[in-house]
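Notes continue from the previous slide.

Worked example: a multi-chain complex. Inputs as given:
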Amino acid sequence: MCRSKTDVAAPSNVCEASDAAPAVFATGPSTTIGIVGGGQLARMLAMAAAALGCRTVILDPDPEAPAAQVTNAHIVAHYNDSEGLAELAAAADVVTYEFENVPDEAIDALAPIVPVRPPARALSVSQDRLVEKQFLVGAGLRTAAYVPVDSQPDLEQAVVELGGAAIIKTRRLGYDGKGQLRIAGAVPATAFEQLGSVPCIAEAIVDFTCEISVIGARSVDGATRCFEPARNDHVDAMLAQSTVPSGQPGAVVAQAVSMATQLLDSLDYVGVLGLELFVLADGSLVANEFAPRVHNSGHWTEAVCAVSQFEQHMRAVLGQPLGDPGAHSDCVMTNLVGHDVDALDGHMRDPSTRLHLYGKVEPRPGRKMGHVTRVVSR
Amino acid sequence: MCRSKTDVAAPSNVCEASDAAPAVFATGPSTTIGIVGGGQLARMLAMAAAALGCRTVILDPDPEAPAAQVTNAHIVAHYNDSEGLAELAAAADVVTYEFENVPDEAIDALAPIVPVRPPARALSVSQDRLVEKQFLVGAGLRTAAYVPVDSQPDLEQAVVELGGAAIIKTRRLGYDGKGQLRIAGAVPATAFEQLGSVPCIAEAIVDFTCEISVIGARSVDGATRCFEPARNDHVDAMLAQSTVPSGQPGAVVAQAVSMATQLLDSLDYVGVLGLELFVLADGSLVANEFAPRVHNSGHWTEAVCAVSQFEQHMRAVLGQPLGDPGAHSDCVMTNLVGHDVDALDGHMRDPSTRLHLYGKVEPRPGRKMGHVTRVVSR
C-alpha cells in the first residue's frame, strides 16, 4: 500500500565527504560546539558539553532561550539569519541542532564551513513525513501503510485505499498532535482545507498495544549503541511518561534495537536519534517516526545511566567514543507540563525522584517546563 | 594537651536570627542563587542549580572563571569589592560560597541584605585552624593535640610539648600542604620565619591508617543527611583519589557519620560540608579539619547518587528538603591534575568511567582540571 509520487524530491545527501577521515574534536575547552536552537534540549546538551569541558554557543532568536543560561555564548538571531549563521559557523568547531525543523538555509550556510552533525540528510528525511516513511521502508523498517495526499480528492481516495480510516498529517511541521486529522468513516469536505491545504500524508491507523522508543547513537567510525527501549504514554497527544524497562519481552527489545541500528546505519548517522515504534498485539513492531536529535523519551537516561543521551550525543558530535548505555536501575520519567511546576514539593521530598527544570519562567498550558525521574532499584 | 590562649577571638555568630522562620526559596527561575567564587566548585554548583531551574550569579575577579561558562551572570570583581558585593546582594535571593576564605568584608556587606548560607560562623571557624580545632573539641569531636604558636620560642616549646614532633601550620590560609612545616627532632631556627612569621598552630602528628571524609548536609529545619564516607588518598599533599565504600567496618562508618552530624548541629549549619577524619589503628577517629562547602572528596556523588553533593548543597541553601544520599554503586573518583588532561582517550573509552572537566584552558602543574569517577556495580 506504499506508493510514491514522482514529485517527491529525493533527500539531498550533504554528508561529509566519505574519502576523508571525519574530524575528531578534543574534549575540553579548546572545542566549541555550536547548537542551533536554545530550548530545553539545547540546555541539557550544553550542560553535558560543559561536563566534558567543552564550550558551547547557541543560535536562538529568543533572548530568554532556556539554554542561554548555561552556554558560553548566545547568538540572538533567527535560524535563517545569514549573519547569525555566519557568526555561529565562525565561533564553533562543530555544529549540532536540537530540533529537526532547521531551515535548509541554515544547513546551506553552515555545512560548507563547519561540520554539521547529525548529517543534513537526517534533517531532510525527518522534516517531511512522506520522505521519512519512504526512507524507513527503504532502510528495511516496517511502517504503517501510507498514501501521499495533495488535494481533497486525494484525501478522500486515500481514506478509501487505507480501508476507511486514516490519520492525515501535514508532510511538514506539526508535532505533539498538531497538524493532524483523524478520520474514520465520512471524510469532511473541508478536511484538506482544515490541514492548511498543504501537502499531506495519509497513514493507516495502526492498532497497537503500546508505543516504545529507542534512543540510539552512532559515532563517526560507525559504532552504534542503543539505550534500552522505553514505553511511552501520552496525554493529549503529548508524551507524558516514559517507563524503563518497557515491559516488552527480550525478542521485542532486540527487534527494536535492531531497527534503530538499521536506521542509524542507513542514514550514515552521527549523533543520537529517537525512533518511535508501535508494538502490535503479536509483538511485531511498526516504525512511527524518528527525530534526528536527543528525544524527550530519553530524558530518563540522565538519572540511571553512566552516560546520558545528552553526553552520548555530544560524544558522537565530537567524534569521540560512545559511552556505555547500560542502566543501573529501573525508572519512570514524567514530564512536567504547564502548571505541573506549581507543585514541586512532593517531588523534592521524594527521595527516589530526580527533578530537572528547564528554567522557563512562564508555565503556559502545554509547555514542557521540566521532568522528574523516579528511580527504582533493580 | 589542648590549651587555648585567651587572645583567641571567639568566632562571631552572625547566623540568621533564630526567632524568625528561615526563608525558603522556590526551585525554579524565580530564584537567583549568588555564589562567591567562580572555580570548579561554583561551576558544578551552578549546573546543579540550573537542573533545579534556578538562576545563578557568581562573583569572581577572573573574567575566565570556570563557573562563568554556565551561570546566568558573572560579576567580575574582587571578593572584597564593595560595589561588586552590593551588586551580588541585589541580584541574588540567597548567597552561598565555594571556598572558606571569603573575606569578612564580603560577609559584612552581604549578610545584612541577603541570607548567606552556610552561616558566617562556619566560615569564621574554618578560616582559622586554631579556632577550628577549639570548635571541634567543643562540639565533642576528638582532634589531634594542638598548641597555638605565635613565635619561634612558642614553636620550639610546642614541639617539646607535643612529644618532639609536630606539624606546624599557619592559622589562616594555606591548603593542599602549603603553609605547613613538618618537624621531627631538631627545630630549624628559621621555622617560624619560613611560615611567614604569622600566627600558627602546632599539631601532634597522628599515626593514622587512612583518611576518610564525610560529606554531610543540614537543612534549614535541622534535618541532616550524610553521604557514605569515602577513603581519601593523597599525592603531594593533594587529594588524588576518593574510594567508596571506604573499606571501614560499619562501626567506624557510623562513628564518622555521627561526628559529622554533631558538627553540622553545633554550627547550626545550612548546606553541605566536608569533614576529614583520620582513622587510627584501633578504629577510632580523629577529626582533621572541615570545609564549609562542597568538597573534592564528594565529587563521586554525581556519578552514583540520586542527588549529588552539589544539588544537596543547593537544596539546603534554598531551604528545600534534602535529597537521598544513598549510593547505587561503588566507585573511585580520581582527580585529573595538570597535564593529566592531555590523555583523556582511555577515560573516554572506558565504559565504566564518568569524565568531568572544568573547562580550564591551561593545564598548569598542580591545577585541578577535572576528575573521573569509575563506577563499579555493587
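Summary box: Chain A is about 25% helix and 30% strand. Chain A has a mean pLDDT of 92.
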